[in-house]
């Protein structure tokens, strides 16, 4: 079997070329850039009345990713620090999200943890 020029593999296309070919981007036009710079972490669903009080935020700042409850920032071992300049910056969001996930169940407001708040507002969900 002989090879013809049409049988030769084409060079790989860039993602930009693929998006242009599909019509998702017009040639010569700049692409729209979408960045995720903030995550909310909580044991309470977003529609729960207490969600905003028992939520941590993982947010990208000029110094790096930080874990905050809106008033304090948390470092890797869960210690709270007041004042933005003392908040611990994480190099990547995976580490910051891991800390927020670990701290979220025990987040305490007015002496009640997030898990206690969840059970107060979702007690019917567990009963049959």
What does this structure look like?
The protein has 128 residues and is an alpha+beta fold. The chain has one domain. Helix content is 24%, strand content 20%. The protein contains four helices and seven strands, in the order H-E-E-E-E-E-H-E-E-H-H. The strands form two sheets. Strands 1-2-3-4-5 form a five-stranded antiparallel sheet, covered by helices on one side. Strands 6-7 form a two-stranded antiparallel ribbon. The radius of gyration is 23 Å and the shape is elongated.
Overview features:
elongated; alpha+beta; five-stranded antiparallel sheet; 128 residues; two-stranded antiparallel sheet
* Number of distinct beta strands: 7
The secondary-structure class comes to alpha+beta
Specify the biggest β-sheet.
5 strands, antiparallel
What percent strand?
15-25%
Strands side by side in the biggest sheet:
1-2-3-4-5
Order of helices and strands: HEEEEEHEEHH
Q: Output the radius of gyration.
A: 23 Å
Cα-to-Cα separation, first versus last residue: 70 Å
The share of residues in helices is 10-25%
Uncertain parts: none
If helices are DSSP runs of H or I spanning 4 or more residues, what is the number of helices?
4
């Amino acid at each position: 079997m002989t090879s013809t020029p049409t049988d030769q593999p084409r060079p790989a296309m860039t993602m930009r070329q693929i998006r242009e070919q599909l019509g998702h981007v017009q040639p010569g036009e700049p692409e729209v850039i979408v960045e995720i710079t903030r995550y909310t972490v909580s044991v309470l669903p977003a529609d729960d009345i207490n969600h905003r009080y028992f939520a941590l935020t993982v947010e990208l700042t000029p110094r790096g990713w930080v874990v905050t409850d809106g008033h304090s920032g948390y470092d890797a071992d869960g210690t709270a620090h007041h004042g933005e300049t003392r908040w611990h910056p994480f190099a990547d969001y995976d580490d910051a999200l891991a800390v927020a996930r670990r701290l979220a169940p025990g987040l305490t407001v007015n002496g009640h943890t997030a898990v206690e708040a969840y059970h107060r507002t979702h007690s019917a969900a567990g009963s049959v």
